[in-house]
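lol forgot to send this yesterday, sorry. struct tokens for the thing we talked abt
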């Protein structure tokens, strides 16, 4: 057998305690295609087997300390060497018992000493060739697996490129501005719509250059919001005026970007859009102006009507039925006045002019006054108001706005409380005033608990319950303006609890 220049020598282990026998065996097997490794004891053989894989092991049966049978048994117990062929060498070739024992511990052959050189060469050559073919098959399997892996990676890359091409085509096809950014917030792509609208090429958008298209008055707030979103990994949303290149006009855009994350939650990129909503913005402004004008115009005759009714109620010679009707008119007038005040507040909030006039007050006394005024209206709905106020809770708040918050929460609790008791509780905890208003009425679905704090939103059908759906919206705006928070805990059919947390010093 001749070894190819590309083939590696195959390791063969020779184990014998006699130096002369090892020398003789090495001489018989001395060929360039074999790399002969010798060991003079069982422990030394085990060490060699830990270092490399052998095509075949030739071992003497009779060795001191650890004989060939013990060594063979240990070799077969190890996962790595259990399939290594073992050929026993012994001078006692006629001992059938030893021969059987050799086969029982895993030997593949039994050769007598002194060895026949041709027989030894022939048998070793067979196992070397099997080892070489097995090694070739393993390498081919590894190469095939690597090729398959590379092919899968190539397919995945092609799919990614195809998806990116589809995304780019979609981004170029839609009429909105579309952009992407890397995890640090650096703009990496902007579609043709951006270029056509602003006249700013993507190559000119390095760093903060993209901000040059935004109105001077909106630029700083847009940048702050963008940097905060990138830092926290939260959805970005901002309104700003964007300059139109063809005529220099600034038009309002709603910009929104969401983070794309990997399976660990790490931000990989940002995907954003900017939508022109100039007409909608103008419509909202017109609506707010109408609400403001209408509210002021309605207030003048309503105030006169309210004064006239109150004057008549103070008359001494009124029939009982007439007085009852006038009191009903007075209550409806007050209700209409509250609706007008709500419209005015919505107008102020949307234009950023909600006024807060803080002063040091005792929230307990404010709540007691509001409840006293509201008891009659609550009793007409069949609801009793239970109060648990504890010690005085002093802080810096707008007294009128605090009255408004409690009135809105009481009105809501009585309206949806199904005629059952309403509870008001106040405590000072951790430097804050903690107010809760609870009812035992129809309750709110979990999906609606956040929505009811928006403008004109309500959890129950309008046909069953009156009102404009602005009370909770105004309440939240007032509480937030004081640096606080409001939330609701509720369950359908089990009532609701509105929780207001207010810092005792004004935080705006």
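and heres what i got for the seq, position by position
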């Amino acid at each position: 057998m001749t070894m190819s220049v590309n083939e590696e020598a195959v390791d063969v282990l020779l184990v014998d305690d006699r130096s002369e026998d090892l020398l003789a065996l090495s001489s018989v097997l001395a060929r360039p295609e074999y790399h002969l490794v010798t060991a003079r004891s069982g422990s030394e053989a085990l060490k060699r087997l830990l270092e490399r894989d052998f095509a075949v092991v030739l071992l003497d049966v009779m060795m001191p300390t650890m004989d060939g049978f013990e060594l063979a048994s240990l070799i077969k117990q190890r996962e790595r060497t259990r399939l290594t062929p073992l050929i026993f060498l012994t001078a006692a070739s006629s001992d059938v018992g030893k021969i059987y024992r050799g086969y029982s511990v895993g030997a593949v052959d039994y050769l007598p000493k002194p060895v026949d050189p041709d027989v030894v060469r022939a048998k070793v050559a067979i196992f070397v060739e099997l080892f070489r073919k097995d090694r070739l098959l393993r390498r081919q399997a590894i190469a095939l697996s690597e090729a398959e892996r590379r092919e899968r990676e190539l397919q995945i890359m092609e799919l990614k490129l195809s998806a990116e091409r589809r995304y780019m085509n979609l981004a170029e096809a839609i009429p909105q501005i579309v952009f992407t950014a890397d995890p640090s917030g650096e703009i990496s792509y902007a579609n043709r719509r951006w270029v056509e609208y602003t006249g700013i090429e993507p190559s000119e958008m390095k760093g903060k250059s993209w901000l040059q298209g935004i109105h001077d008055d909106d630029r700083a707030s847009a940048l702050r919001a963008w940097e905060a979103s990138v830092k926290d990994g939260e959805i970005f949303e901002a309104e700003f005026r964007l300059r139109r290149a063809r005529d220099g006009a600034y038009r309002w855009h709603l910009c929104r970007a969401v983070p794309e994350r990997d399976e660990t939650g790490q931000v990989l990129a940002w995907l954003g859009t900017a939508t022109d909503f100039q007409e909608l913005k103008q419509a909202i402004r017109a609506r707010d102006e109408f609400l403001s004008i209408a509210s002021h115009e309605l207030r003048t005759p309503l105030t006169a009507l309210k004064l006239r009714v109150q004057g008549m109620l103070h008359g001494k010679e009124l029939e009982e039925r007439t007085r009852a009707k006038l009191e009903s008119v007075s209550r409806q007038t007050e209700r209409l006045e509250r609706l007008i005040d709500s419209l005015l507040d919505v107008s102020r909030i949307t234009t950023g002019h909600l006024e807060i006039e803080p002063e040091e007050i005792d929230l307990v006394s404010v709540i007691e006054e509001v409840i006293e005024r509201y008891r009659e209206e609550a009793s007409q709905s069949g609801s009793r108001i239970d109060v648990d106020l504890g010690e005085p809770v002093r802080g810096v708040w707008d007294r009128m706005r605090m009255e408004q918050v409690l009135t809105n929460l009481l009105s809501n609790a009585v309206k949806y409380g199904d005629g059952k008791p309403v509870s008001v509780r106040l405590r000072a905890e951790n430097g804050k005033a903690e107010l809760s208003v609870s009812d035992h009425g129809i309750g709110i679905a979990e999906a609606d608990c956040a929505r009811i704090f928006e403008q004109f939103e309500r959890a129950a059908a309008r046909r069953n319950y009156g009102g404009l759906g602005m009370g909770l919206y105004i309440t939240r705006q007032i509480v937030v303006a004081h640096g606080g928070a409001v939330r609701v805990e509720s369950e359908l059919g089990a009532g609701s609890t509105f929780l207001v947390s207010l810092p005792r010093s004004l935080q705006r």
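The chain is about 45% helix and 20% strand. anyway ping me if u want another try
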